[in-house]
Design a protein that fits this description.
Layout lengths: L1 E3 L5 E3 L5 H7 L2 E2 L2 E2 L8 E5 L7 H9 L3 E5 L7 H17 L3 E4 L4 E5 L13
Parallel strand pairs: 5-6
Antiparallel strand pairs: 1-2, 3-4, 6-8, 7-8
Length: 122
Amino acid sequence: MVVFGIFGGKKSSGDVNIEHVLNELSVRDGKVIERDDVKYVKSISLDSEAKNMDKVLRELRKGNVVILNVTEVSHNKLLLRDIVKELREASVGMDGDIARISQEKILILPGGMKVSHSEQGS
């Protein structure tokens, strides 16, 4: 495969350090640069007592999509149920949506976004 360089020169894909390129996209001086006019997909892991739920809700209020890892709380079914209930109320309250995407991950969408549930076999 051939990749064109910045000034039109050709480089083989072996000459491109994709990790370096991806790491430089939004990082300056070791800090992730976020812009207010851009919406992000954030991956957040809940701690075992769900003490960082405020971070999840803050990201939703900013209009960001959250992929929530609930592995640490999955052993506590009552806590997990309460978390999902709180997230559903917050998301639906802002005209968003929520869906389970695996045993350990929940997708939470902010206002103006919905999950499309396709029919089986479609």
